[in-house]
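User: I need a structural model of HD-GYP domain-containing protein from Streptomyces kebangsaanensis for a docking pre-check later this week. Nothing fancy, just the predicted structure tokens so I can convert them on my end. Input:
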Amino acid sequence: MEAVPPRARAYVACVVLGALTCLLPLPVTRTPWWAVALLAAVYAGCRHLARRNLAGPFYPALLAAAFLLPPAAAALVPLPGVLLARAGQRPEGLRRIWRAAQLALAVWAAARVHGALGGRDAVAASDFPYVLAPAGAAVLAFCLVLTALDGGIHALVERVPVRRAWPGLFTRSLAPIGVHGLAGLMMAVLWRSPYGPVAALLVLLPMCVSWWVYAQYHRERAAHRATIRALVQAVDIKDGYTRGHSERVGQASMMIARELGMDDERVEVLRFAGILHDVGKLGVPTRLLRKDGPLTPEERRVIELHPEYGHEMVRGISFLGEARSAILHHHERLDGSGYPYGLTGSQIPESARVVAVADAFDAMTSTRSYRRARPVGAALEELERCAGAQFDPRMVTALARALDRHGWHPAVTAEDGAPLPPPVPPAADREEARR
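Assistant: Understood. Predicted structure tokens for HD-GYP domain-containing protein:
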């Protein structure tokens, strides 16, 4: 949102005007200002803690306001916490205004729906289970407004095609917002009970524990990504001729794994395996990787040690799991003619058979200075020709199905302006391409 197009600014202005319109019929004399102030302070504090702990949006206080207060009053609750906080990205002022207006509209809509369905009376009477239906409808309204407005921003600022701007936003956000809505409902019921607002705030204690757990998970995953990124960058620096190859192999490995029906955690591990399959090149002398002339048998044997070097480098990284065996065995062949151990058939780990197909596919569909890239169809024909001897036919079929369904759109994050490959390919690359 750094360079905001004029149409996006107009969109934000319309959302702000809509939010101001929601605030206009505020009944000043009948508004419980102490409740508005308390909930606004709670939301601001929770938002600050959530941002510091990387825990994402936190809405229980906002939904509790929608269940307790008139719509115009409830719409005031998110404003101090958003307008006074740092946005973190430029333009900060516009981002704060946008987010405040978006949340004000969402809370207002939730409060309107909740009130229209008699929710506030049900909350005041602690009328279970009838209190659940209005609360559920309010949560749906809250989620719909947020996702509808977010989709508009994606389309106008990030230039996402309209057909892709909204699909998936609602379904992805409904479950977490539903959990926050349940916590907000518990807060509202306790608020109206004889125990009062203090008891209502105790509902946030278990949510704080969930923040902490989520934050630890988020930090761990961030550390994983940083580790992977550092290793890949090191390989790219040493063997710049194949820059981007590792990421594309990771993408193809992920496509195969998904087509095989693997769970999300295993798909992620297979992506890591593809990205890091050549990390062992860090242990190969640079002069061999960049040698222009033919390799001697001894030099070829040294290069063929790179899977073992890679396995040794990542052996202590526990989160890689079966990716480690994929790194070690991705040059094995079903007929036993591969390296480093000459394994055959089912002796080769499944993860390594996935990466072997992904590696060969990208090698064939990438342009090199000594040959043009093959079309995807031609590469698949070659994989199918070698299936059963070099590659696992099941993996080849899975890749073909995935490409037929999604196409091949490799996303490479190598920096623009990176050095171009040399005009003559290194001998090590030519040898690997022939294999």
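Before docking, keep this in mind: The mean pLDDT is 84.
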